[in-house]
Amino acid sequence: MSQPGPAAGNRTLPSLPGRILGIDAGGSGTRVILLERGTVTVRPDGPPMNALLTDGFAAQLCQIIEAADATAAGVGMAGLRQPRQARDLSEALTRQTGRPVHVTGDADSARAGAFLGAPGVVVIAGTGSMASGWNGESSARAGGHGFLLGDEGSAYWIGRAAVRAALSWEDGMGGGSALIHRAVIEAAGQGLEALIGEVCTHPAERARLTALAPVVTALAAEDPEARKIALRAAEHLAALAEAIRRRLGPLPVAGAGRVFSAPVIWDRFAELTGAVRPLAAATVGAALLAGQRVNGA
């Protein structure tokens, strides 16, 4: 499926030389596009990947890159925390695939897509959460500390909050609600004891809890406890944007990731930050960054 050059508003995608693959690798899946002469062609998705959690992700990236007839590739990778990691992975994939590959963290590629390379702050809220900003001279990041130590406002965080609310209601400790309790059990397809066992036995498998996020946001219109969780998630995400603005100045903000598809979260986030929707996806941002690097821009 191809999409023409205009991206959003009155901005258009740069027409960079060559056929550039853009890859957005994250915990819920890996999206892939091909950018050629300002036109985006969507390619088949790849499996979920995270540099911290996925074994053999480099080999999976090689397969995706080699399957496309591209002259260069850009990868936005979840879980990359150090510039050295990105450089090492770029060099390894370039050597293994025989074409230039430019790897960044997923927040960098999301920001490049959101503002088509212009200054701004992007907050990502998918399986995890983080923010990345650039003011034309300096860059800054916030969040992205993983599901054990951070990722506030993410789908995982929302799902975990829902299970905690259900457990609190079941234990008679206050908080939670009968609606959340029933919805969690129905969505999980099992009782809470079985769910606890699975989460504790396989803590790195985050899909069990992230799948509950849309259940919570759907309940927010009728259940005060669900709405409280959703609004708290939006406030966490807005705090990430403000942390970047304090360091880089009053930049525009965009929100990217499937958590923002819930109106209750997007509306509150936009109210707090003045956020806009991204001009283009992180896949496009990854391709733009790779094209600029290859062409010396």
Could you explain the architecture of this structure?
It is a single chain. The chain has 297 residues and is α/β, with parallel strands linked by helices. The chain has two domains: 2-116 and 279-294, Nucleotidyltransferase, domain 5; 155-273, Nucleotidyltransferase, domain 5 (2-Layer Sandwich). The protein is 45% helix and 21% strand. The chain has eleven helices and twelve strands. It has helices spanning 57-67, 83-97, 106-114, 155-171, 178-188, 192-201, 207-210, 213-219, 224-248, 263-273, 282-294; strands at 2-3, 6-8, 11-12, 19-26, 29-36, 39-46, 72-77, 101-105, 120-125, 129-134, 139-143, 253-256. A six-stranded mixed beta sheet has the order 1-6-5-4-7-8, sandwiched between helices. Strands 11-10-9-12 form a four-stranded mixed beta sheet, with helices on both faces. A hairpin with a 2-residue loop joins strand 2 (6-8) and strand 3. The longest helix has 25 residues, at 224-248. It is globular and about 60 Å long. The two termini are 28 Å apart. The relative contact order is 0.18. The model is unreliable at 1-10 (pLDDT under 50).
